[in-house]
Write a structure and sequence with these properties.
A four-stranded antiparallel β-sheet has the order 4-5-6-7, with no helix packed on it. The longest helix has 9 residues. It has two helices and 15 strands. Helix content is 6%, strand content 40%. It is mainly beta.
């Protein structure tokens, strides 16, 4: 939270900070069912700290991807006040009750945004204006009817987004030209084998 504090998610679904000099614990806030955030798992392990607003961003709707209620989006938690704010998007695929849950996101420092691997497809959330952007509008791969996703998402040194999808496997999205490429385009079998064992990139 500051140079003299660290924050952590605790097993009792609490966000707390600890003073690094005195080890004094301060409880900031706890999760409620309305937050749609599991007390453990990938939705918390991929959370992101935003120093400009002294807040953290957490994925919502983790349970929905396994048959729970629809949901999704992000929760912003202020580390100063503990106040929560929810951010969601309107369904771009126009599917009633469509699940917008996600298990993986990554921070893009160059673009000051979050990339989210969701059931809707690849989503970009720009932190300067708190807006969602649907990448399926830029590349039809993410708008396919059979599009599904796994957990994995990461950035490479060129600023490209590596995303674990289903059934096509790992794809590489380049925000510079909105293109999608496959790591092994000439070998469909190898593409599938590599993707299946690396769904958590």
């Amino acid at each position: 939270a500051t140079a003299d504090e660290i924050f952590c998610f605790e097993y009792d679904s609490v966000i707390a900070t600890y003073d690094t000099h005195t080890y004094t614990r301060k409880r900031l806030t706890g999760f409620t069912p309305a937050d749609s955030v599991s007390g453990s798992g990938s939705s918390l392990s991929s959370s992101v700290f935003d120093p400009k607003t002294n807040s953290i961003w957490v994925l919502r709707g983790h349970g929905g991807s396994y048959g729970g209620p629809p949901g999704g989006g992000l929760m912003q938690v202020s580390l100063t006040t503990g106040k929560k704010q929810y951010h969601t998007w309107t369904c771009y695929k126009k599917i009633p009750g469509h699940n917008h849950a996600a298990e993986g996101m990554t921070y893009d420092r160059k673009r000051n945004c979050l990339w989210i691997n969701s059931w809707e497809g690849l989503m970009q959330f720009t932190l300067d204006d708190n807006q969602f952007h649907y990448i399926g509008a830029l590349n039809s791969f993410f708008a396919d009817k059979d599009y599904g996703h796994w957990v994995g998402i990461s950035l490479d040194q060129k600023g490209r987004v590596w995303v674990a999808t289903n059934p096509k496997g790992i794809v590489i999205y380049d925000p510079a030209d909105y293109s999608v490429k496959f790591p092994f385009p000439e070998d469909e079998k190898l593409q599938k084998e590599i993707s299946d064992v690396n769904a958590c990139i």
